[in-house]
Amino acid sequence: MRRFTKHIAVIGSVIVFAVALAGCGGGNQVEQTPPQATDATETVQGESEAQDIRADLTLWTYPVGGWGDKETVDALIASFNAVYPNITIAVEYVDYKTGDEEVNAAIEANRAPDLILEGPERLVANWGARGLMVDLSNLFETESSIDIYANVVNACRAPDGAYYEYPLCMTAHCMAINEKLFEEAGALQYLDTDTHTWTTENFFKAVQALYDNGTEQAGAIFCAGQGGDQGTRALINNLYGGHYTTADHTAYTVDEAQNIQALQALLAQDGIYFDETLVGGDEQIAFREGKLAMAFCWNVSAQNDTAAGNEAGKTNDGSTIIPMLFPSTDGTSTQLCGGIWGFGVFDNGDANKIEAAKCFIDFMCNDPEQVKENVRQSGYFSVHANVTGIYAGTEFEETMNTFTTYFMPAMGDYYQVAPGWAEARTEWWNMLQRIKQSGDVEAEVATFTKNISAVTAK
């Protein structure tokens, strides 16, 4: 099987990643200089040698599209074993409700998996920062990594320069509206359905129109836990141009005046309510059931989802779901939270297993005959600029093209690798709950800042 990578060292001059980020980050793109190999150091074992590796590996995977489905993953692993028959992969499936607890329990019991599929906020900012992961820098030194979007590469790198994730797929998280409810309320006039954009002023006008028309729960600021919190963060940050962290990701900026203004406006708005009984997944269900006119936890995978028996892009009663960028003051400067998923390797002290795990990662993320299928099963987009046409000829082609055109270019800074990220997520939903209870936005934001500053100062 022809491979992207012949696993030879990259030598000579420094290679600078300056990939045009048409699908990831727009004006937030960065230049990324990957770690360099020398002619005396091979980045990964030669292909024929690697195929002789014998190892029994465990892979734990979060439900990243079809990667959470046993039948799908079995088929993908079978493709890997057709090339590497001596590396066996035993898979366990974890979810976002209990997965972190299961992984941490496994770490404490010295039985962490060899491989894990998730994103930088866990692989880099959590387990990597704790010294539990293998540095995958040599995978980034191969020629097959040169076309990975620069912001994606940067998100996989820890402050110490190590790379604790090798990426497979990505998306930009957004929101969505129920077209029928908006039309009945006369609220469609406040958004541009062609470009999927709206201003902050028109967002609040639309919510008020929905409320006046009898939709008392137009949108929910869900805060029962951290699930889907990228939606509430993006809504609040975008309304008046606030940020969640500093540009260098060293400190949290939730106490910016723009964020406080957004929280106060949402708290005061009829039709928007802070709901401590819902997380993002629950909000999606309520939205599909018509109980909410809009969802703040949305992306292309949700748009294409037919698991509930609905037609893709439809609510339970058949209403059209229109994906939307989050509102901003000018309607054009929205920055969407990104999702990046890939593989990490726990350092279990077995060099042979680590090398076998790298072979698995390289095959799944870079093999030209396999990578399109692996990404397609995620339901998201490739991190490789040169891997295109993944959904051509499928039922999802039109929707994927829409997201590629209007949503992926709005993917903003991947700040989810800031220090104390796990604690910050907890502080965020706790803060939203307290805001509902006390109504004092400034005081509760100050408490967030105080609590997370105590964590990051350690």
Question: Could you name the CATH class of the largest domain?
Answer: Alpha Beta
Helix content: 25-40%
Total number of distinct structural domains: 2
Largest sheet: 6 strands, mixed
User: Whole-number radius of gyration?
Assistant: 22 Å
Helix count equals 17
**Fold-level CATH name of the largest domain:** D-Maltodextrin-Binding Protein, domain 2
Distance, first to last CA: 50 Å
Summarize this structure briefly.
The chain is α/β, with parallel strands linked by helices. It has helices at residues 47-50, 70-83, 99-108, 120-128, 137-140, 150-155, 179-184, 200-212, 229-239, 257-268, 280-288, 300-304, 351-366, 371-378, 397-406, 421-438, 441-456; strands at 55-61, 87-93, 115-118, 166-172, 174-178, 219-222, 272-275, 294-298, 321-324, 338-345, 381-382. The longest helix is centred in the C-terminal third of the chain and has 18 residues, at 421-438.
Description:
This protein has 458 residues and is of the alpha/beta class. The protein has 2 domains: 26-172 and 339-406, 3-Layer(aba) Sandwich (D-Maltodextrin-Binding Protein, domain 2), CATH 3.40.190; 174-335 and 420-456, Periplasmic binding protein-like II (D-Maltodextrin-Binding Protein, domain 2, 3-Layer(aba) Sandwich). The chain is 37% helix and 12% strand. The chain contains 17 helices and 11 strands. The chain has a 6-stranded mixed beta sheet, with helices on both faces. The chain has a 3-stranded antiparallel beta sheet with strand order 8-5-9. Strand 1, helix 2 and strand 2 form a beta-alpha-beta unit. The chain is globular, with a radius of gyration of 22 Å. Residues 1-45 have low confidence and may be disordered.
